[in-house]
Amino acid sequence: MNLRFNQIRMPDNTFDGPFTQTIEYETKQKGEYWLILAKSNMAEGTPVGKFFVKIE
Fold first, then answer.
1. Spatial distance between the Cα atoms of 8 and 36, rounded to a whole number of angstroms
2. 16, 17, 21, 49: least CB-packed within 10 angstroms?
C-alpha cells in the first residue's frame, strides 16, 4: 500500500516529519498528538485499502 506517516503534530502545535510507513516516536510532551497519514509520492501503488495503526 502506498501510504506513509506524513507528519506528527505535537501538543505545542509544532510538527515533525515526514516519516516512512513504520515509525517509532518518543512522546516527550503531555497532550494531544495528531498522526497525519498521506500518499507517499516516492512509492508506487494505491493509497486505498485496509491498514491499521498500533500505538503502544
1. 6
2. 49
Please write the tens of the pLDDT for every residue from 10-49: 999 999 998 888 889 999 999 999 999 888 777 676 667 7
The domain locations on the chain are 1-56
Q: Per the omega criterion (within 30 degrees of 0), is the bond before 47 cis?
A: no
Cell (9 digits) for 45: 501503488
Amino acid sitting at position 2:
N
- Name the grid cell of 29: 510532551
Q: Could you tell me the three cell numbers for 51?
A: 491498514
* Total-model pTM: 0.73
Alpha-carbon gap, residue 51 to 14, rounded angstroms? 26
